[in-house]
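Form P-L/3: holo structure prediction, ligand D-serine.
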Amino acid sequence: MDQEINKWLLLEQERQNNGIELIASENFVSKEIRKLTGSILTNKYAEGYPGKRYYGGCECVDAIEQIAIDRACKLFSCNFANVQPHSGSQANAAAYRALLPRGGKILSLVLNDGGHLTHGSPVSFSSHLYKFAFYPLKDGHLDYDEVERIALEYKPDLILCGYSSYPYVIDFKRFKEIADKVEACLMVDMAHIAGLVATNEHPSPFPYADIVTSTTHKTLRGPRGGLILCNDSEIIKKVNSAIFPYYQGGPLEHVIAAKAVCFKEAMSDDFKRYIQQVKINTKACSNRLKQLGVKVSGTDNHLFLINVLDSYSLTGKEAQLALEEIGITTNKNMIPNDTLTPSKTSGLRIGFAAVTTRGCTKEQAESVADIIHGFLSKAIDKDKALKMVKEVIKSWKLVQEIGE
Ligand code: DSN
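OUTPUT (holo model):
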């Protein structure tokens, strides 16, 4: 055992167990998923796809990858899947390459309003390879008429929807109508809401999207990794060659095996009940904060935003650091019409996917709101807040025991 690393592993386990994890993109995976990500499958090179590899000895990983593909298609009711992307960013890069020539025009959400870095940020590859125009939110909500107006003017080759901090339902059908009007493709990045889509707790992007990308580790509660789905046999060929050999080399078959288990878990009644509870908890916390006079977004999904600048005269960074002192982990986040920079921000993003896996109830989600408000407004001190945190988590499962 490498004691130097093991010490930190155990400290991280303690941190996860003793805290309230509210980062909206995180979750706690089952024991089986953890076991597979640490399995001997990591030893195998398998460049290529099932039945068409550049290495010998691939019969077992071929079977595993094919099961993962078949389960992904069944879970999301689509025809084709690529389960090899190492992350959501690689999935998005491959999707753009499959649908567009270099320099192709993409219309996506203003990044400060909830888009992802790969949706056209100047610091991401995306803005270097493609031309972006952006649609804004109106009062925190998608304004489909405005998207249509900008699309008619900009004439994009691709319209992109699906976001990192949008708390409401997305109308994929309306996006498809706009895309058809300007003869653009429609791409949906459903990374945040994949677990909700899998359980029909959010409308599906199919049959409207030409390509759907996702991660598997957020609300879907699988291993860290990416996923691409589509219904068209020509598009999947382009996706496959964009992932390998264009962007990636050897697939992570240990992670792909864990993705296969994640897709199976997501088909269960237990998982549907879990996602329903995530939505109940998120709404309960957001509503409680609203009752307390805090400036928060509403929510239809697993996340919401707090305007900490207006509510507490704190930047998102300051609020994040303050909550970390009492074992509540969040992330600073830009909010619509933010006047601060991404390294400071006026907002905090709050999500309930992770804590709901550990057993968080609606009442506990309301207590979490009381702790956040009490501590950030300085109505309660650190000792009292720490005691309240301890009380909330005392009945929760340990992260190393999830899925037992
Ligand atoms: N970094 C992820 C998030 O936190 O939303 C997006 O990939």
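COMMENT: The radius of gyration is 21 Å.
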